[in-house]
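Handout, section B. The chain below has 225 residues.
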Amino acid sequence: MNYKLLALSLLLIPGFAGIAYGHTVDAVGEYRIEIGWMNEPVMSGETNGLELYVSPLESCPDISIPLECANSQEFKNGIEGLKKLLKIQFVYDKTETITLPLAADHDIPGKYYAFITPTVSGYFQANLIGKILETPVNLSMHPPPIAERSYIEFPQSADLALTEVIDDNSKLEQRITTLENTIKNLEDSNEQKQDELDSSYVIVLPIAIIAIIMAIIALLKTKKN
């Protein structure tokens, strides 16, 4: 039984590691490109950085597709001196963009960072723009998605609680406005009905007076006869 548990744990660990440290790999000319977040899972509202690894793409005699060739290799012999040659453009929802410079890692040649604080959750596109030495680069890549921070906060943060209070107040104000509109409509309806009654009273009253006068005249004539 212990051996079964050990085997199961060995199967599960790589799966979790792939989720927690998912990097995206691609190829540009003779170079291998790899990107991924510094801290995972990536949460909205927290400062993070996109890690960029640039290294030579080794030849793959048995693999004809450059992307598959790049994925079959690991980062090594990183390319230095790209800090001023490359930039990363973040794109959100195809409409909002920001271009960030790179910062070189002091300990690992060929590793660079682009720091950012994502304010919303979802998928971001990372465009690598510039050149690697003499090779032009215009590559779109998709790092792992950004999760909503409130999903894992415990206990509830003050900011989130305040947001809920504001939402409740907004809903209450909407209900009060609806109630006021309903009361106003009722008042307008009552005024309209009262006006109709007053108009009817003005018309009926003279007719009633004339009828009474005619009845009195008829009664007087009857007594004389």
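Note. The chain has two domains: 2-148, 153-225. Compare this with the example in section A.
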